[in-house]
Amino acid sequence: QVQLVESGGDVVQPGGSLRLSCVATGVSFRLYTMAWYRQAPGKQRELVARIIEGFRTEYADSVQGRFTISRDSQENTVYLQMNSLKPEDAAVYYCHTRIGNDFWGQGTQVTVSS
User: Which residues contact 39 (CB under 8 A, 6 or more apart)?
Assistant: First the structure.
């Protein structure tokens, strides 16, 4: 059974940083892509970053150079380090993987406001 549990969301000022965590059970990072998505009010859920087979990373243009996705296989955790946060980064952030079916975490709220 795949379970994804996010944490780390908070209220932060523009220019600040946050690190999100996604603890995964029932999935091997080496075999499957792990991704972070986000959804702001009134907008569609969008891909933010993903780590493919545990190593190769890809980012949305809007976060390239500011966000970093990484993994800790021993802790079975995927991280999203977010720097230089902007108001438009505010959203609920979701962890995702696909093993036949799509699996999502419950989401963690990121608010960027002065």
Answer: 45, 46, 91, 92, 94, 107
What does residue 93 show for φ and ψ, rounded to 5 degrees?
-100, 130
Structure tokens at 63: 């976060």
pLDDT in tens, 23-66: 999 887 677 899 999 999 999 999 999 999 868 999 999 999 99
The DSSP code for 88 is G
Length of the chain: 114
Distances (CA, A) of 63 to 59, 99, 102, 105: 7, 26, 23, 21
